[in-house]
Design a protein that fits this description.
The protein has 469 residues and is mostly helical. The chain has 3 domains: 182 residues, MFS general substrate transporter like domains (Growth Hormone, Chain: A, Up-down Bundle), CATH 1.20.1250.20; 54 residues; 210 residues, MFS general substrate transporter like domains (Growth Hormone, Chain: A). 78% of the residues lie in helices and 0% in strands. The chain has 20 helices and no strands. It is globular, with a radius of gyration of 21 Å. It starts with 6 loop residues before the first helix and ends in a 5-residue tail after the last helix.
Length: 469
């Protein structure tokens, strides 16, 4: 960390890094542990889907509320609640006696996680100014990116040599350290007197998404004709529609709909839906199939996607700089289509499995495409919105990415034909490719290049972590 920082500033930055690291790390270790979880607790593919989606439902719905909560109650208090909640639910997950208990605990963990990343960035922006703020965010980005590398490897090692349950205890020590530092730093809680939290909107969004996801996950088992499927589907759609309608009339909307009148913001979020829905689906399918179908250990399955992260780290800042000079449209078109080609290469996976020829080429193309996409996508979306509204614009884009992943994972059994065998893996790869190519085409048709901005470069790894945090 920069020597020009005061001791207090270093402590604040360390708090922000650790709080975000906890959320990012948990998102990257879970997929590796899914086969071991379903082996011990039962439930097969449906349990695996629920373990991921229960977390994403509450995270995606409540991340929009996090900014309002910080304004109403103070950043430090919200972060403490998030950290304590995350720690307690992590212990509960590790001790889960049944799949149902674990799924409920994951939903509560998602609610806690929704307050960690936004509050950590708010601490940085409140503490640092000018060039120092840019340096601090750069350090935050670099440090939290390590979670993307360490997570799958640590998760795999724990699953193979210890227990999947201990995977969820990895973050307990950093949580304890962060709470201690937060107390030591004596961060003041600045509260806005007119701040308000629209809990009704949060409830409508959470219940609506939850019921829709329940119908999608359980449909292959119960069938569309079952009232346990079509009734939650209809009620969920009504509740989510009511949430959207409420945002037009409430004084304190958690999803300001006027943002979507800006072309690059609305088109960028449509592209985000396709791209991050595909990335979430691909991340789930590859890690689970490599263990259950190809017979790799959890550690090797976790290492399989490492080339994607390495290429993202090496190339994303360069792509962001070029997009700042030439505009984001080209990169947002070529990047997703390149990833789509990478997804199609997974069709070469055969019963006679060979990682080096059947999976690695796909991972290389996925990494190149992701590096081309992430920073230009973020810049196009946030650059289209006035600076004073960049916080809520970022929160909306994060929520869109998480909800997209939530829906694609919920629909996995339908996409794969009921089972994640080799045929199901190939179907998922085709669906992933279709989503990514659609994201590229939407960007080509809808994104408009604007004059180069003097705004700071977008946070590539933070946005890449949207689908995993």
């Amino acid at each position: 960390m920069s020597q020009t920082m005061s001791g207090r500033e270093r402590t604040i930055l360390t708090i922000a890094v650790l709080a975000s690291f906890v959320a990012f790390l948990d998102g990257t270790v879970v997929n590796v542990a899914l086969p071991a979880i379903s082996d011990e607790l039962g439930g097969g593919l449906a349990t695996q889907q629920w373990v991921v989606d229960a977390y994403l439902i509450t995270l995606g719905a409540l991340i929009l509320v996090a900014g309002s909560a910080s304004d109403a109650y103070g950043r430090a208090l919200v972060m403490r609640i998030g950290l304590i909640g995350f720690g307690v639910t992590s212990v509960a997950i590790a001790a889960a006696p049944t799949a149902e208990f674990l799924i409920v605990a994951r939903a509560l963990q998602g609610a806690a996680g929704a307050f960690l990343v936004p509050s950590s960035l708010a601490l940085i922006t409140a503490t640092f100014r000018g060039a120092a703020q840019g340096r601090a965010i750069g350090i935050w980005t670099a440090m939290t990116t390590t979670a993307m590398i360490a997570g799958p490897i640590l998760g795999g090692l724990f699953v193979d040599f210890l227990s999947w349950r201990l995977v969820f205890l990895i973050n307990v020590i950093p949580i304890a350290i962060t709470l201690w530092l937060l107390a030591r730093a004596r961060v003041s809680d600045d509260r806005k007197p007119d701040a308000a939290i629209d809990w009704l909107s949060a409830a409508l969004c959470t219940l609506g998404l939850g019921l829709l996801v329940f119908a999608l996950i359980e449909q292959p088992r119960l069938g569309w004709s079952s009232p346990l499927i079509w009734l939650p589907l209809v009620v969920g759609a009504v509740l989510f529609t009511a949430f959207i309608v409420r945002q037009r009339f409430t004084r304190h909307p958690v999803l300001p709909l006027d943002l979507f009148r800006v072309r690059n913001f609305s088109v960028g979020n449509i592209a985000t839906t396709f791209i991050y829905g595909a990335l979430s689906l691909n991340g789930f399918v590859v890690v689970v199939y490599l263990q259950q179908g190809a017979g790799l250990s959890a550690t090797l399955a976790g290492l399989a996607s490492l080339p994607v992260t390495i290429l993202l780290i090496l190339l994303s800042s360069r792509a962001g700089a070029l997009a700042g000079r030439w505009g984001p449209r080209f990169f947002m078109t070529v990047g997703p289509i390149t990833m789509g080609a990478g997804a199609l290469l997974l069709l070469t996976v055969a019963p006679d499995f060979n990682y080096w020829w059947q999976v690695l080429p796909s991972m290389i193309l996925m990494g190149l495409g992701l590096a081309l996409t992430v920073s230009p996508l973020t810049s196009a979306i946030l650059g289209a919105i006035d600076t004073e509204r960049s916080g809520i614009a970022s929160a909306v884009n994060n929520a869109v990415a998480r909800v997209a992943g939530l829906v694609t994972i919920a629909a996995l059994a339908t996409i794969a034909g009921g089972e994640l065998d080799l045929d199901g893996f190939h179907r998922a790869a085709l669906f992933t490719a279709a989503l990514l190519i659609a994201g590229g085409l939407v960007s080509w048709a809808g994104i408009r290049n604007t004059a180069p901005s003097t705004a700071p470069a977008a946070d590539a790894s933070g946005q890449a972590g949207k689908n995993s945090a």
